[in-house]
Fold Thioesterase family protein.
Amino acid sequence: MSASGSGFGEATAVERVDDGRYEAVLDPGYGILGAINGGYLMVVLARAAVDASPHAHPISTATNFHRVAKPGPAQVIVDSRKTGRTAASALVTLVQDDRPVVDALITTGTLDTAAEPIYAGPPPTPVPPLEECTDLRPPTGGSGFADRVDMRFDRRTMGWLDGTPSGSPEMRAWFRHRDGYEIDAFSLALAVDALPPVALNLGAQGWAPTVELTWHLRAVPVPGWLAVHGTGRLLADGWFDEEVEVRDTTGRLVAQSRQIARVPRTGS
């Protein structure tokens, strides 16, 4: 269980209270503009799913966000749908105030950490060296998302901060935990939803709530920084998509995701 200011492991811990029933305490430090980050919520759900499964890794997660999660107590319900030798699946629900906040269909499996890829597509545009990137952490510190997650952004994708969006829906950054927690498979659930919305570089402004996000664990990452690459294809009628690839320090693709999200309309 967790409290504000705790490390990533404790902040995302779940406690089993019955068969398929867990309790958690959502850490306010993983909030952005008053809403708990969706990637953080997926970590909590993944920990419960793996605990209830004979397999070690959250291979695929398809998540629907129904309501804004609040800091504090929550329940996690794991409804097993299938358990097999190579994979298991469950519908996992985060509940607050007796209402479902997030649902995720999670498939678990056990990856071979020594497996080599048979095919790997070309890598995306590389993230510049750390010393050439921008740390957006407030100089006074605090208790927000930027104080939990260490991200160094490619300055070429951050023009929206100065009112000069690039016109291309792209974001790139390095990622790690500020508390020293070693990057693992659960960290990837947070990493795929850690970038600012790519729609900001198309002139969008304000909070862009995710409606649905699906992510896949492709390999267990080695310790060290993660390179996070975000792109988009379409912004229309108040909706936009975002695709993210995450690579570890060896350059291996370790996670990928796609989400659909809302952009506030002008005057709404």
